Amino acid sequence: MGRRRKHNRHLPACMFQRRGAYYLVRAGKWHPLGRDFGPALIKYAELIGTAPQVNTVRDAIAHYLETSANRLAPATLEGYRHSAERLASVFGAMRLQDVTAAHVYRYLTEHGTVSANRDRALLSAAYTHARRTGAFPRAADDPTKGLNYRNEEKPRQRYVTDEEQETLLDASSPKLACIQRFLHLTAMRQGDALRVRLDGMDGEGIHYTTEKTGVARVVVWSDELRACVAEANRLWRRFGRLYLFESNPKGKHAKRGPGPYTPSGLRALFRVARAKSGVKDVRLHDLRRKAGSDIEEAHATELLAHKNPATTRKHYRAKPVRTKPSR
């Protein structure tokens, strides 16, 4: 799900109130609707029923992201926004009809990275959306389709050793170290771990719903997990807190108020600790792979909330296979 409104929840999608007036926001442009809510709704309906003013690739991507924000996962939306910046530097000013399959193929081959594959996926989604909304003719060729080419994607196999983990923990603040232990013990995705609520814990374990698949899960208690949660309750002691790991920002971010850490903010804290530790080529997500590698495969598939064991084997089993000699 995308970010929900905190104010003016009665307003329809893409309609905002600013300085006493109502606006329809499309592709980054604010269209005035007037100061009276009733007439503003009528004008909103008229505008929303017309085809969007989409001419360039930049327009198409912006309109797709704007209208899809409520149904894309936050992590997907964040990645698409980075892709949008890269695509805009190359295709942004080009008309949709002027982009050819050769342009897209050259972009993929010249960049030659996994990120370029993600960029192509966003570009393809933007063209499909533009065709559905009438901004791109149905008879025209979609330059993102039929290439039969993508840059090779090798699964990351970085395994964090116990010694490296201890070094990272020593270089981290007590709160960051606690979160790292929790990620390793539960193998949760960062977003899921940061949204664990205090009222989601009972005598059975920690209840949560995976953001990626929407499946309800329970991680049952172990002695180490109980100790980690007890440590979190000691470190985060704000009265009335709702989340196990709760941020209470100060300074310029104070107006946001208390709430869960953002994954991007957590990764920023981890980058500082990583630089201090001297451990190379490690990401916070690698703790999820370590969790999947430190236990039996069947247990790992269950803990990682994978439907297909092949996903576990391909991406989260980083230790070498041990076997006995023939004699």
Secondary structure elements and pairings:
Layout: E1 15-18, E2 21-26, E3 29-34, H1 37-48, H2 57-68, H3 74-91, H4 101-111, H5 114-133, H6 162-171, H7 174-186, H8 190-194, E4 205-209, E5 216-220, H9 223-235, E6 246-247, E7 259-260, H10 263-277, H11 286-293, H12 297-303, H13 309-315
Antiparallel strand pairs: 1-2, 2-3, 4-5, 6-7
Helix pairs in contact: 2-3, 2-5, 3-5, 4-5, 6-7, 6-10, 7-9, 7-11, 12-13
Summarize it:
By secondary structure, the chain is mainly alpha-helical. It is 46% helix and 9% strand. It has 3 domains: 1-50; 57-133; 162-315, Intergrase catalytic core (hpI Integrase, Chain A).
What does this structure look like?
The protein has helices spanning 37-48, 57-68, 74-91, 101-111, 114-133, 162-171, 174-186, 190-194, 223-235, 263-277, 286-293, 297-303, 309-315, and strands at residues 15-18, 21-26, 29-34, 205-209, 216-220, 246-247, 259-260. With 327 residues, it is mainly alpha-helical. The protein folds into 3 domains: 1-50; 57-133; 162-315, Intergrase catalytic core (hpI Integrase, Chain A), CATH 1.10.443.10. A hairpin with a 6-residue loop joins strand 4 (205-209) and strand 5 (216-220). The protein starts with 14 loop residues before the first strand and ends in a 12-residue tail after the last helix.
